[in-house]
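Subject: design request, 481 residues
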């Protein structure tokens, strides 16, 4: 079933039952991106979507800098000789690489950056010499490029991974690296809260982490499709990369040692999760703390009241703009109902309706996007009430995201129950012995299914969902993107 035709002749689908179509339509209708660029899996960031992402980026920039992680920029072109320093990594990426040709179509031994390590770590080996150079903590905001051959989806799986940050740190000891991991977890918790998202945090299976690494924490969001979206990772690399790239330092005793490393990364998939988790059949719902427009003022008038209402609306707009991100909709060829629809579609947290009655009574009609609640506010109480309401919306969206995830995790005790849970677009919580053989059997239960991670905490013993072996490992199974 289709509903509500918008610009470009697109019709917004129903979010829960037709999520894939809904997602593709809302990106275009709400002005997040334009995917009509003439190259597969590349798109144009439109202003509204880009401003949301910039608000998220500005926040992570501040968090990283406040804890002393410095921003740098490394070249887009990566020499093959750097890639070949870690052959395990190179084997995993070379078939996805964008190879660069030089002038006159001659082959050039470079690729476009698929991840940061091969560009950064050769420089680490030059810069890091002594224990006095440690810890070395940097990050970059870049695009990365991978020739994806799977089914691509804007912002979720692209050939250009845009608005992406990578933190890379080097430390003198294993303990220092583990402390850095804990710090990155705290930083990511703050970013998630800013986006009013509640992810599932898991340990990656050992064969899914970088070869030789100590471990990795990964974040996932459950989307309305029933698929989980991988959305950020914190990797304790141990000395796996420092040994490949010869990143050594001289310690206080004059001994040469390899550094211990951590790398952490995420980006625009945060916005994909915001869109999927918070949206509804009317469109987007943008959390106030990342919204480029927090309040939209809509004057409602006829020919007799037009001047008085518009003058008041402009005055209110200027006043509110001192504290909030506010826009006013003065389009004269669009009905108030159409304006309501447009701004609901774009997910603006609060709408102020201002008509002759509001002007006369010195009150405002305020409508919440998250609940649809409509209420009156006295002009004298405007700032205080709007500030509290925006805070309430932020809290409510986070609460709803948490409840949605927790209610969607279902215990499964056998393969049939796993399939039943997945068919309900939920996550199956299972005991797992940790073996690759049982992992493969779980993956075979349903097309796209995967045991994507294990619980960070040990639990009471149970029996593996496949082989019945005694185990204290809890795994999470879902369909994945």
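Subject: RE: design request

Done. Sequence follows.
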């Amino acid at each position: 079933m289709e509903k509500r035709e918008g610009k470009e002749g697109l019709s917004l689908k129903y979010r829960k039952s037709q999520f894939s179509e809904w997602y593709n339509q809302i990106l275009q209708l709400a002005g997040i991106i334009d995917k009509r660029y003439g190259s597969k899996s590349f798109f144009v960031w439109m202003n509204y979507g880009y401003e949301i992402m910039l608000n998220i980026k500005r926040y992570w920039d501040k968090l990283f800098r406040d804890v002393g992680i410095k921003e740098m920029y490394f070249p887009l072109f990566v020499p093959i000789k750097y890639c070949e320093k870690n052959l395990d990594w190179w084997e995993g990426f070379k078939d996805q690489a964008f190879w660069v040709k030089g002038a006159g179509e001659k082959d050039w031994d470079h690729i476009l950056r698929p991840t940061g390590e091969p560009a950064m770590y050769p420089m680490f080996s030059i810069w890091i010499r002594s224990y006095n150079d440690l810890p070395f903590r940097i990050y970059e905001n870049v695009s990365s490029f991978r020739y994806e051959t799977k089914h691509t989806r804007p912002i979720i799986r692209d050939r250009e991974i845009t608005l992406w940050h990578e933190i890379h740190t080097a430390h003198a000891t294993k303990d220092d690296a583990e402390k850095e991991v804990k710090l990155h977890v705290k930083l990511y918790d703050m970013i998630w809260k800013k986006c009013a998202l509640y992810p599932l945090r898991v340990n990656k299976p050992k064969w899914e982490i970088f070869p030789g690494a100590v471990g990795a924490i990964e974040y996932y969001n459950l989307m309305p499709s029933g698929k989980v979206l991988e959305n950020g990772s914190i990797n304790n690399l141990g000395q796996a990369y420092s040994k490949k790239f010869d990143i050594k330092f001289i310690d206080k005793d004059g001994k040469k040692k390899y550094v211990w490393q951590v790398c952490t990364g995420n980006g625009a998939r945060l916005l994909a999760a915001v869109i999927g988790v918070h949206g509804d059949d009317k469109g987007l719902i943008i959390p106030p703390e990342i919204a480029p427009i927090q309040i939209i003022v809509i004057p409602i008038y006829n020919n007799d009241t037009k001047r008085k209402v518009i003058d008041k609306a402009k005055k209110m707009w200027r006043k509110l703009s001192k504290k909030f991100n506010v826009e006013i909709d003065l389009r004269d060829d669009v009905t108030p109902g159409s304006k309501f629809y447009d701004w609901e579609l774009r997910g603006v947290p609060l709408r102020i309706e201002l008509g002759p009655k509001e002007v006369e009574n010195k009150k405002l009609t305020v409508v919440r996007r998250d609940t649809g609640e409509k209420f009156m506010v006295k002009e004298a109480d405007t700032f205080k009430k709007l500030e509290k309401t925006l805070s309430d919306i932020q809290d409510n969206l986070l609460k709803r995201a948490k409840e949605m995830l927790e209610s969607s995790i279902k215990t499964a005790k056998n393969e049939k129950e796993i399939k039943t849970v997945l068919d309900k677009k939920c996550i199956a919580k299972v005991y797992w012995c940790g073996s690759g053989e049982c992992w493969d059997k779980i993956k075979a239960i349903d097309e796209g299914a995967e045991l994507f991670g294990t619980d960070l905490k040990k639990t009471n013993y149970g029996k593996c969902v496949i082989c019945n072996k005694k185990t204290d490992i809890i795994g999470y199974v879902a369909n994945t993107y």
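The chain has a mean pLDDT of 95.
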